[in-house]
Amino acid sequence: MPEETKKLTLISGNSSGDLDSLISSYVMGVLRSLNNCDGEKTRVLFHFPREEWRLHPEAKLLFTRCGSELKIILFLDELTDLNLHHMKQEKKLNIIMTDHNYPEQALRELNSTTEIIDHHQIIIPPDESISCTIFNTGSCCTLVAEKFFSILENRSESIGNSLKVELANLLYFTIHIDTDHLEEGGQYDLERDRSALKKLRKLISIDPSFLNQLIVEKNNYSSFSMEDYLRKDYKSWKWENISYGISSVHISIDSFTREHLEINRINSFMKKKEIDILFMMHSLKRPILMRELSVFFSEKAVPYEDFIKRLKCSELFSQMTDVPVEGNNIYFFSQLEPKLSRKKIQPYLEQLMKSQKE
Ligand SMILES: [Mn+2]
Fold first, then answer.
1. Ligand 1 centre from 175 Cα, in Å?
2. Which of 47, 176, 278, 280 supports an S-S bond with 15, CB 3.0-4.6 Å?
3. pLDDT digits 0-9 by tens, 141-196
């Protein structure tokens, strides 16, 4: 079949590149390619340049251990190879989103989403023509696992045994990593995660104790530069004329400011990402879950004094005044409700920005 008649399905996780996004999009990609007819193509997009793959050691370890070949994966800097605009014009492009429900910047204007599998709150309701599987599970991989089970039940002949085991391994360990720290009765409905884990447990080939190795790798930042911390799990948003980004990091404000912080490099990172405000969400799981927030304003940012005032007297944050860092545009807070993750905090912060204009 000539090249130009091929259909393309592109699976995209969210741009933060956490394990849930990477694995949910990859497994959806593999499942999707099971029903490809001759000449159809399925690709999975990882939302960072190939050079940043080294910042995701736990994903690399999991893929390697599960024997995944990663042939269908491409990185953000390789996206142009797909000629997406042309494919869209020819009506040959489908985009499937996992772990988010509003298209990421790189794919937004293509307007080609046909399916969404997600566990985030809906901010902008998706078009009615899009097939949606959106539930409040702890892990998006749980929803992907349910699709996997349904294939195993209804057309098991389409999936070979080694592929079945590979996918079960990938999903099992990701759901564990994503949900083990969550509590019943909290912000997620964990029943479906637990039941998916039970079913997957019967299919996996890797010893469950591998989870410990994965967690060690996930927290192995020994070779990280300051910029690596900022880039590893970074997402950005735009609201009216304000662009802001949030980096999730697993290091306390205390260690970060003592060991890594260099203000001029924060500024150059913000310049590169073209943002006015950078938030760092610090979270640590030991000895108990705690979260903190650093806020940096760019040199040229309009002074957001009102916004900072609101943050200071908000019910979710309390300002830390004892951090020995010099600078006018830097603020540090501890988070009073540590259970709330970026998914919940980001809309809250944006609300605080909005109310300053009203
Ligand atoms: Mn997720």
1. 9
2. 47
3. 999 999 999 999 999 999 999 999 999 999 999 999 999 878 777 778 899 999 99
Mean pLDDT for the chain overall:
91
**262 lies in the same domain as 118:** no
CATH of the domain at 331: 3.10.310.20
For ligand 1, the distance from its centroid to the CA atom of residue 120, given in whole angstroms, is 7
What pLDDT score was predicted for residue 4? Answer: 55
Distance 139 CA to ligand 1 centre (A): 5
Among 216, 250, 280, give the residue marking a domain's end.
216
Q: Are residues 46 and 85 in the same domain?
A: yes
170 shares a domain with 303: no
Range(s) of the domain holding residue 248: 226-357
Expressed in angstroms and rounded, the spacing between residue 57 Cα and the centre of ligand 1 is: 18
Ligand 1: distance of its center to the CA of 101 in Å?
11
So what's the pLDDT on residue 186? 74
Q: Using the predicted structure, report yes or no on whether residue 22 has a pLDDT greater than 50.
A: yes
Rg (CA), the chain: 21
User: 43 alpha carbon to ligand 1 midpoint, in Å?
Assistant: 20
Write down the pTM of the prediction. Answer: 0.82
- 85 assigned to some structural domain: yes
The reported pLDDT for the residue numbered 114 is: 96
The total number of structural domains in the chain stands at 2
